[in-house]
Structures are given as C-alpha cells and as structure tokens.
Fold this protein.
Amino acid sequence: PPPAPTAGPEGKRTVHVVGDSHSLSLHGVGVEAEGVWFQSRVAVGVKMKHFFERGEGTKFFARTIFEGHLKRIEGETVVVSCGEIDCREGVGGLAVQGFINGEVEWEEVEAEIRKVVDGYLMELEAVMESVGKTAYLMQIPQGR
C-alpha cells in the first residue's frame, strides 16, 4: 500500500492531488497557492480506461493504488488528474487501427473515446462516493 500522505505546513489547509504519471509527474511534491498547500500523490498506471471495462470481480492494480491513496488522505477534497484515455491499446484499438488504415471513419474512434470518458466519470464518481470524498477534476473531459 502507498505510504500515508504528507501534511502541509502547520496551519495550512492541505488539498491532495492524486493522478497518473502522465498528467502528474512529480510524486510527493507540495506547492502553496493562495494559502492552500497542494500535495501531489502519483497513482502509478491509472488511466481513464482503468476505471472502465473491468472484468466482474477484478481490480486493476493501478485502481487499487488510487483507492489506497484516497483512503489514506485526510479531508474530503481531492483534485484528480487521470488524464490519459489510452487510445493505443485500450480504447477501440481495432477502430484506431482501422482509422490509420483508412477502413474506419474518425466518428467510430470518437465513439469509443466517448464510451471510455463516460465510463471513467461514472466509475470515478462511484469510487469517490465509496471513500467519502469530493473530486475536482484537473482536466475537463472531452465533450463536457
């Protein structure tokens, strides 16, 4: 399990930022902005796809790490930065390959991306509710 989160300087409100290594490159680094201490926590491997399309009764390790961070964080507000959709191997790989080969129109690829983004938002909401936290998204998902 991940270590307990680091608290900010004494007397500062701490907001934890949890995300994947593609969108949150520094782990354990904190920064102060307008009297609030933002503390980063990298959940290795988390991509939008990993919140979606899980087999029944299975958990991808990255989602388990992400949930572990959330359970160890004090306070109810978390900034979430899981930005990679994972178009190459995850999102409609056949559709992407078909687009590259000229066999599929972009709208089919976009429909696959939409499924993942919608699934991610639905699953993220369920995860945050299960740990009693409010998530603020660092990125605005496509089409929202």
